[in-house]
Amino acid sequence: MALALKITMDKEKIIFLTNHLYKLTLLFPKKEPLRYKMRELADEILIGVIKMNSLSVSNSSNSSFSSAAPLKKTEICEEEIIDNLDILDSFFNVAKEQNWVSLSDLEIIQSNYNELKKEVENQRIKKTNSQPSLVLGKIQKENETREGAPVSSAFPEEGGNSLEQSQREEEQRKEREKKKEEAILNERQEKILVFLKEQGRAQVWQVKQILPEVTKRTLRRDFENLLKKGIIERIGEKNNTFYQIKKS
């Protein structure tokens, strides 16, 4: 089975790749679960790519900071695609040990899916690198609106009180840092915090119930991020691990 096409985020090419996976898995034993699991994952990846492309068009048509919601949806979509690609890659490795089909055919399709994963990851890196400037731009705009002018100079005006000026600038700096921290919390993390405030404490599986579309792997990353920020704390261990809002 020749598959010379280099896979990119183009929808038609992903459909082409999905069709080849379907044809290849036809050679698996009929009652083999892997035959259907790999197809299901390929379908989920295709759906994810279509959704992500649609969101990318939406984001590009709105360059202002008001496009934060679509950006968050894109981030969730990217994480789901990567999770599905990781699982599919493991299934490919299992299939290669069974001698059901040509090893080279499996490796060709597997490598194309790996190329797709690299492309999604590269897009995430580019997006992550561009986000700080958006956050800072929003903060600066809010400061200018609130004060009626850009943030004051680090040097006090002639004849002014340098101590008061320094205190005011320190307060402004803290306010900017606070807004920056709030701005970089994604939508899932905000929902997690609301849930923890309502419940007092919770485990990952409980949060998964209110965010069924999000994988446990993604939720664990969110919890780790909130832990690093010092917003929540972990109590217990292993199966009795709970999270709660950090007490001041």
How would you portray this structure in words?
A two-stranded antiparallel sheet has the order 1-2. The longest helix is centred in the middle third of the chain and has 45 residues, at 103-147. It folds into two domains: 11-137, de novo design (two linked rop proteins) (Up-down Bundle); 185-248, Arc Repressor Mutant, subunit A (Orthogonal Bundle). The chain is built from eight helices and two strands; from the N terminus they run H-H-H-H-H-H-H-H-E-E. The chain is mainly alpha-helical and 248 residues long. It is elongated, with a radius of gyration of 24 Å.
Architecture blueprint of SSEs:
Blueprint: H1 11-25, H2 33-60, H3 68-96, H4 103-147, H5 162-183, H6 187-199, H7 204-210, H8 216-228, E1 232-235, E2 242-245
Antiparallel strand pairs: 1-2
Any idea what the radius of gyration is? 24 Å
Question: Kindly, what is the distance between the CA atoms of the first and last residues, rounded to a whole number of angstroms?
Answer: 62 Å
Number of domains: 2
The average pLDDT is 79
How many separate helices? 8
Strands side by side in the biggest sheet: 1-2
CATH hierarchy, class of the largest domain:
Mainly Alpha
In the predicted model, the low-confidence regions spanning at least 5 consecutive residues are 1-7, 149-159
Helicity level: 55-70%
